[in-house]
Design goal:
Elements lengths: L10 E7 L6 H8 L4 E7 L9 H16 L9 E4 L3 H11 L7 E5 L10 H10 L5 E5 L2 H10 L4 E4 L14 H4 L6 E4 L6 H10 L5 E5 L14 E5 L3 H9 L3 E4 L10 H9 L4 E4 L2 H4 L8 E3 L4 H12 L2 H15 L4 H12 L2
Parallel strand pairs: 1-2, 1-3, 3-4, 4-5, 5-6, 7-8, 7-10, 8-9, 10-11, 11-12
Helix pairs in contact: 2-3, 9-12
């Protein structure tokens, strides 16, 4: 095994579901002679997105499942991809019993919850631990966590995926317009802004694919919006594939927010208008997309108009987005994780 500061230590992986299997960094560690243990909350997902109540149930289950086995984590490398808050609490309560344990929290997102004063007070206690490293996906997250704790280690790891495009949906059989502007997703989406945008472009068709958990309905005054809910991933992607332009409309600068939509659009060589936030802007630098100011209808409208009125610009943006997306694969992410984790 390659030399490392953690050489000889067991890596414990904490996953939401057993069906997810080992993440790439754990597979690499095992392939190079390291011992890996996988712990999980549930066997497999029984539905799509978890509601807030469903997430709380999973976190409670994780706490009681993992808290009874502190020696499993003693002097280990822990790569935690789910139930991060419960495991932080376990570590803080266990204290020195965990020995030289080093914990790397990946995919740790709080969204609106993180703005609540009570949550911030809890986090100040949980994050006061130099054994913790949070792998962030935006500059905004780094600023947020650093304001809460000077002890926690913070490292930036861009979102990466090996997503490949799927076949285009047949618009006629799917009841879709021949040409349309697309957006979709559940977490951190600014759908109210998108409805206002559609109102400014009455001669253009829009297709939005949301979750019923978003709690949105199309305003009755809009007859140019097709609003769909809870579609399977492949159908979501196939509708994106048929879009003329894709928009990534975010509400705040936090991970798990639009990165999959951004990479999907880029791998399909789609021209993109995106919220100018650090969590996704690195996908679209050097002319690979058109940014708009957070929550600003005028700049969003200007970006969409620029793409719709210039086929050459659409082609150039799409081509550059595809080229840049090749920098954000799992193969590209692995050496970054190894470096941060000292493997």
């Amino acid at each position: 095994m390659a030399s490392s500061e953690h050489c000889g230590k067991t890596m414990v992986v904490l996953n939401q579901y057993k069906s997810y299997g080992l993440p790439s960094v754990a597979e690499w560690y095992a392939a190079n002679g390291g011992e890996v243990r996988l712990l999980y909350i549930s066997e497999a997902s029984k539905s799509g997105f978890l509601s807030k109540k469903g997430l709380l149930r999973e976190w409670t289950k994780a706490f009681f499942k993992w808290a009874v086995q502190p020696l499993t984590f003693r002097n280990r490398i822990v790569y935690c991809t789910s139930a991060q808050l419960p495991f932080m609490l376990i570590c803080r309560l266990a204290g020195l019993a965990l020995g030289d344990c080093r914990v790397y929290f990946h995919n740790f997102y709080l969204h609106e919850l993180g703005r609540k004063p009570l949550v911030k007070r809890i986090l100040r206690f949980l994050l006061a631990d130099s054994r913790f490293t949070i792998l962030t996906q935006s500059e905004g997250e780094i600023e947020y966590y650093r304001a809460l704790s000077s002890k926690v280690n913070l490292k930036f790891i861009p979102f990466c995926s090996d997503f490949t495009p799927v076949a285009k949906e047949d618009q006629r059989t799917a009841g879709l317009p021949d040409s349309y502007v697309f957006t979709g997703g559940y977490t951190n989406r600014d759908y109210p802004l998108m409805f206002r945008l559609a109102g400014r472009f009455p001669d253009r068709q829009f297709v939005f694919v949301a979750s019923s958990l978003n709690g949105i309905e199309c305003p009755p005054s809009l007859d140019n919006v097709t609003l769909l809910y809870n579609l399977p991933k492949d159908q979501f992607e196939s509708i994106l594939t048929g879009a003329e332009v894709v928009i990534v409309p975010l509400r705040e600068d936090v991970g798990a927010s639009g990165q999959m939509l951004a990479i999907s659009a880029a791998r399909n060589a789609k021209p993109v208008v995106y919220t100018d936030l650090s969590v996704i802007s690195y996908f679209f630098s050097d002319g690979a997309g058109i940014p708009y100011r957070l929550g600003d209808l005028d700049s969003l409208s200007a970006g969409l108009h620029a793409l719709l009125s210039d086929s050459g610009l659409r082609e150039r943006c799409g081509r550059k987005a595809l080229e840049r997306s090749r920098n954000f694969t799992m193969d590209a992410q692995l050496p970054l994780l190894r470096d941060v984790m000292g493997l």
